[in-house]
Write a structure and sequence with these properties.
Radius of gyration: 18 Å
Number of helices: 7
Keywords: ATP-binding, Nucleotide-binding, Transport
Strand order of the largest sheet: 6-7-8-3-9-10
Order of helices and strands: EEEHEEHEHHHEHEHEE
CATH topology: Rossmann fold
CATH architecture: 3-Layer(aba) Sandwich
Protein name: ABC transporter ATP-binding protein
InterPro entries: AAA+_ATPase, ABC_transporter-like_ATP-bd, ABC_transporter-like_CS, MacB-like_ATP-bd, P-loop_NTPase
Distance between the termini: 16 Å
Structural class: alpha/beta
Organism: Luteolibacter algae
Shape: globular
Family: Belongs to the ABC transporter superfamily.
Number of domains: 1
CATH superfamily: P-loop containing nucleotide triphosphate hydrolases
Length: 229
């Protein structure tokens, strides 16, 4: 399998002088196509900073980040935005759905930014909703959906552009244990059947155990990197 992500000596410093804080301290990490990686760590460990860098939402202070051969640290904000839009999918703990907009229209949004026709947007959005098991909920607004259904809409929105890499930030943080199982089963199926590379931040050991690999971050360094299967 090809290497999708390669980090070498990644350092992130916030602030200056006496107020400077080193959130990441020279991290090396490689992620291959089709892996399902959970990133764990206590509050303040640097895991969120790491995921922001991996998701091209921020840039390192020092070091090299290669995404599918592209030197991300050398891109400007517009170029990083294009990379996010065309190569990455994002799932968030808070779902981030538009409240007064139907499930279908929420899923269509990334395609709207890409300039797809209305007919094509609707076709692809219907397919994405069907792929996460809620084809019949396309007319419903978020207020008319359960937490699990809202997260499925959010996953459909992340999938509608067919990204090869999916970033999930505490995707089960707002869900009960039964719904958490359902969402993790869905993510595992997407990983195994479509070979989508998934990087997931979680503070829950039980959720992390569903991934194929667990990277633990502490004090800005990788404390452990374990293959679970």
């Amino acid at each position: 399998m090809k290497t999708v992500i390669s980090l070498k000596g990644i350092t992130k410093i916030y602030g200056h002088g006496d107020a400077a804080f080193e959130a990441l301290r020279g991290i090396d990490l490689e992620i291959r196509q089709g892996e399902f990686v959970a990133v764990m760590g206590p509050s303040g460990s640097g895991k969120s900073t790491l995921m922001n860098l991996l998701g091209c939402l921020d840039t390192p202070s020092f070091g090299n980040y290669s995404f599918e051969g592209i030197a991300v640290e050398s891109l400007d904000s517009d170029q990083r935005s294009l990379l996010r839009r065309h190569a990455l999918g994002f799932i968030f703990q808070g779902f981030n759905l538009l409240a007064r907009t139907s499930a279908l229209e929420n899923v269509e949004l990334p395609l709207l930014y890409r300039g797809y026709s209305r007919k094509e947007r609707q076709r692809l959005a219907h397919e994405a909703l069907a792929s996460v098991g809620i084809a019949d909920k396309w007319r419903n607004t978020p207020a008319e959906l359960s937490g699990g259904q809202q997260q499925r809409v959010a996953i459909a929105r992340a999938l509608v552009t067919s990204p090869e890499t999916l970033f999930a930030d505490e995707p089960t943080g707002n869900l009960d244990s039964s719904t958490t199982e359902d969402i993790m089963d869905l993510l595992k199926n997407l990983n195994e059947q479509r070979q989508i590379t998934i990087l997931m931040v979680t503070h829950e050991a039980e959720v992390a155990s569903e991934a194929k690999r667990i990277v633990t971050v502490r004090d800005g360094l990788i404390e452990s990197d374990i293959n679970t299967r």
